[in-house]
């Protein structure tokens, strides 16, 4: 899984993605074939090309939940959904690493109400843990959630339809 690969060797995860993107762009042989319906021949499908670099400069700083080692030399930005099991697992792995995490909630699985509660919580890190654990978030208040709208708009514009999406510094 992405979380395990990131834990073992962060460069391997990025290198593997870059290799797959390059193979797709060149039409290389990469075993990405679609499963045909009954009576149809198999056709090879190309992977969509993704940029090797993703600029996050268009995102507002206030749309992030920052946690982890704030003095760490490595920063990982993660687009997550609080109802995503892979995001929950990745969050647990990132807690054990010496990284600064910038979590950008998007509601890929219809969890905008939960993202609003976490974002408006007095202690966002505690609320993140509660959300992933399925526990109630009790210290929430009313706040401006328009930065979450910006996260979702950015994700749509960049074609980030699933979670988690990991962007390394």
Please give a structural write-up.
The longest helix has 17 residues, at 10-26. The chain has 169 residues and is α+β, with helices and mostly antiparallel strands. Helix 1 crosses helix 2 (10-26), helix 1 packs parallel to helix 3 (85-96) and helix 4 runs antiparallel to helix 5. The chain is built from six helices and four strands. The chain has helices at residues 2-8, 10-26, 85-96, 112-119, 124-133, 146-158; strands at residues 65-68, 75-80, 100-105, 165-168. It has a four-stranded mixed sheet with strand order 1-3-2-4, with helices on both faces.
Could you name the key traits of this structure?
single chain, 169 residues, alpha+beta, four-stranded mixed sheet, 6 helices, 40% helix
Q: What is the number of strand segments?
A: 4
Number of helices: 6
Global outline: globular
Strand order of the largest sheet: 1-3-2-4
Q: Sheet with the most strands?
A: 4 strands, mixed
Topology order in helix (H) and strand (E) letters? HHEEHEHHHE
User: Overall mean pLDDT score?
Assistant: 80
The percent range for strand residues is 5-15%
Radius of gyration from the alpha-carbon trace, in angstroms: 18 Å
Low-confidence stretches: 28-35
Q: Which percent bin holds the helix content?
A: 25-40%
Distance between the termini: 20 Å
Structural class: alpha+beta
């Amino acid at each position: 899984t992405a979380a395990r690969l990131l834990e073992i060797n962060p460069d391997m995860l990025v290198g593997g993605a870059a290799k797959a993107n390059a193979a797709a762009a060149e039409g290389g042989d990469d075993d990405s074939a679609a499963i045909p319906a009954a009576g149809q021949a198999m056709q090879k499908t190309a992977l969509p090309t993704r940029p090797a670099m993703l600029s996050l400069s268009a995102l507002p700083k206030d749309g992030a939940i920052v946690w982890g080692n704030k003095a760490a030399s490595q920063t990982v930005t993660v687009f997550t959904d609080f109802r995503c099991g892979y995001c929950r697992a990745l969050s647990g792995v990132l807690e054990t690493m010496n990284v600064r995490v910038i979590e950008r909630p998007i509601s890929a699985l219809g969890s905008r109400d939960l993202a609003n509660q976490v974002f408006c919580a007095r202690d966002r890190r505690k609320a993140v843990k509660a959300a992933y654990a399925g526990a109630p978030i009790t210290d929430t208040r009313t706040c401006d959630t328009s930065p979450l709208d910006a996260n979702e708009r950015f994700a749509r514009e960049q074609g980030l339809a699933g979670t988690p999406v990991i962007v390394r510094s």
